[in-house]
Design goal:
The structure is a homotrimer of 338-residue chains.
Chain A lengths: L15 H13 L1 H4 L3 E2 L7 E6 L4 H13 L3 E5 L13 H8 L5 E6 L4 H8 L4 E6 L5 H16 L9 E5 L6 H10 L6 E5 L8 H9 L3 E5 L2 H5 L4 E4 L10 H5 L9 H7 L5 E3 L25 H19 L11 E2 L10
Parallel strand pairs in A: 2-3, 2-4, 4-5, 6-7, 6-9, 7-8, 9-10
Antiparallel strand pairs in A: 1-11
Chain lengths: 338, 338, 338
């Protein structure tokens, strides 16, 4: 696909070469994200970072990615505050905001809202999460992390085994990641969840139709046994009818040092989309693994900046320009990325 | 007037040559706002974008305008969060904030607050809306839009006919726009509203004293008949004693394709300060006009950036400097302004 | 100490030469803070300005200081909105945010939280206030102001007399300022407060052990009598069990023109950390002193920018670089700092 000026709404708009193009560009962003060099590729450009649902982490990650390419960031983090509450349509909001933004990232609680917004927007729109629907930059950073982690272990994505654990029914991250993995060959999906929180049958069918192997189990030990990567998720409390209903499932599928040692392959990569719930009653990914070399959760968020920079660079067509006219970062940057 | 270092508080501080000076400078900002060129005129300068009342659109528009001249934007969008709730005076807030801002835009729910704030400020202050009182950059962008739209139809502001529709009692935008139009010659005002929501008699008297013609009617068909521009407004629900009281008037004066075709001159420009209320019970400006070439509402918001850039450039005295040392915008900007 | 890459968490980490180093660097920032020159020392760097407790003034002051050195600012001002409310640990938040910020300023309502956050952060962290505990940049700007004010009166900090007035039990600013003054010689502390709101005995003991003189009184007249500086504080209502309990003390110790003239030395500097409570029932520092040449409260906030620039420059090691490649500020800057 031609990324120039395109809206990035769903992982389903990508073919495998598109995903690999994004990852190659992400690789080229390392000198900037790791603060060795400063790029001015987007000097003067403006990101409209419109978060109509709170998300400090994702909002700041997109903003930093844009700053690292030299651009300005204007943003909102206030839903109650917006004209939308005065009866304004997404059409109007999009027409207005796209008049003064060169690219827009939008998060909104309603599924489909970002696509509707993009339809009316005069500037390219990147989906920063539209409710239960999609969060494509998260799925991309997850797969990018898998690629990097497996490469450093002399393996690739084709043929890999992945365990997905937890609330697979409501977790949009595992849905989108599955659909990206679908573009590759011979993936083994080990889906571990309570029966009631299984991966939607439609997605399972898609994966199987594409030639992948999917097994589903409630038995953590069995599901963990043979994976290159395990991907933990938190119970999506906000998608349940009540906190009580969510409590039934909370804490049922956990990974900690003891379980990892007993059930996982010694080199299994541990992933989680964050935030993880570290309260005792949940604790789906225990902090006793924090120093474990296979814990990739913070490398995931670091990679998120690279992937978001890549999306901006591709959509705004400055991939070639990013490494030009760079300067050395002139301040203390420590050993943050060693 | 000399704009250098001046506070912009009210449309009443302008004479006609001042307004025309602002518009000429706004014209010169087009290459930057339309993303063909990047200016560094305000490189290093800081805007304090202080919104003590929510307004995503206006806040972001001012911020983008400042970024487009190369400056930094620091801002607040939190009223509950501010020291004002700990009993701090506007005097103190102004003295403090003006110590680290080169120019301040302030919105605040109380009429007169921005003038009081400006009194104490050491940096120039631009009124971003002070409750029922004024929102001068909105009035300027409205008139600037009228000028542009009529020019492209080989007409001018002098002698024009304008229809103003809706809640003319509470709508500060129509009050301020009227006072700007007052500076011109021989304007015909066709004021269309329920009797209870008529334009304040003081303003009508001002207009007549200045030689303009004002007619007031409750008859939409009659009022729409002969205008170069119609300016729709929403019912200012927040100014009524109750939602119920506002409901009496909601939806009574609407413009849609059918009404436009039947009652308006074929070349009548359609304006609205936005947000428009697109809920069925209100819908004062129907979406079936969205593709109409005479619908100027999104050109209004685009023009808002130009007018705000002009105000910054004039107040900070960089009008001559803006077109110097510019660079070409190096990223994809699409066909957003065609 | 070596400031490079260091966390700034507590005034207790400084020795006298460290404090003086900060102040000398702050002096060198004047051309930038007073808008005569623009520095690009931090061009491309990113501040993560993380305010998990509202504070418009402090947040904007840190952000402006970073902009004045040429850097980008990404920020949050939303506690309810953050992942912390979904059960995320400070450890996780710190690991994530420090992946895309070159330095972090953090404010958080819980004492000790910033130190805990810094422990996990890969980038240097500056404490922007952690509840009842510390707010080191405030203490530094207070002492820096004292130094400047006394210097202009041909005096120094050693041997000075300082009156501290109000809620000395809960006011973290007077605690931290006292601990910085402790590093100097022969200070006379005149502590004026209700018996129930006295300075914590531990701090008084520290001061005396370091050779300073401390007197405590409930008699305003007596305590005001002989000081180079008086430092007023507001009743920290949020630290009391109820508003009613705070009301007992509110308004008991006030300074106004009449009291100043009667009880203070004619050249006594008047300070307050702001916000001051200007409501009639509190009004600990009356506005009838607003034009008084010895009122230093707005010079304090101006100095805050200098001190915060100094902290950034020291921690990120760009002190030498700041005055290089500067340009003249090209916009109107008025007479704001005369």
């Amino acid at each position: 696909m031609d990324f120039r000026g395109t809206h990035i709404i769903s992982v389903q708009q990508f073919q495998r070469p598109d995903v690999e193009r994004i990852f190659d560009v992400a690789d080229s962003m390392e000198p900037f994200a790791q603060r060795r060099q400063v790029s001015k590729a987007l000097d003067g450009a403006i990101l409209g970072n419109m978060f109509f649902e709170p998300s400090t982490r994702t909002r700041v990650s997109f903003g930093c990615a844009f700053n690292m390419l030299g651009g300005h960031v204007r943003e909102t983090a206030e839903i109650g505050a917006s004209s939308i509450t005065k009866g304004e349509s997404l059409y109007d909001t999009a027409r207005v905001i796209s008049g003064y933004s060169d690219v827009i990232v939008m998060r909104h609680p309603r599924a489909g809202s970002v696509a509707e917004f993009a339809e009316a927007s005069r500037a390219p729109v990147i989906n920063g999460g539209d409710g239960v629907n999609e969060h494509p930059s998260q799925a991309l950073l997850d797969l990018y992390t898998i690629r990097k982690e497996l490469e450093s272990r002399q393996r690739g994505i084709d043929g890999m085994h992945i365990g997905m654990v937890g609330d697979l029914k409501h977790g949009r991250t595992v849905h989108s990641l599955s659909r990206l993995l679908k573009l590759y060959r011979d993936i083994n999906f080990n889906l571990i969840s309570p029966k009631q929180l299984r991966m939607p049958p439609g997605i399972v069918a898609e994966l199987r139709a594409a030639g992948h192997k999917v097994s589903q189990t409630e038995d953590m030990a069995k599901g963990l046994h043979d994976n290159d990567t395990v991907y933990l998720t938190r119970i999506q409390e906000e998608r349940f009818a009540s906190r009580l209903e969510a409590d039934v499932y909370r804490g049922r599928f956990r990974l900690n040092q003891a379980i990892y040692t007993r059930h996982c392959q010694p080199n299994t990569v541990i992933m989680h989309p964050l935030p993880r719930d570290t309260r005792a009653e949940a604790n789906e990914l225990d902090e006793d693994l924090n120093q474990h070399p296979n814990l990739a959760i913070f490398r995931q968020t670091d990679n998120g900046v690279l992937v978001r920079m890549a999306l901006f660079a591709l959509v705004l067509d400055v991939v070639e320009k990013a490494p030009q006219h760079v300067q050395q970062a002139g301040w203390y940057t420590g050993r943050r990325f060693e």
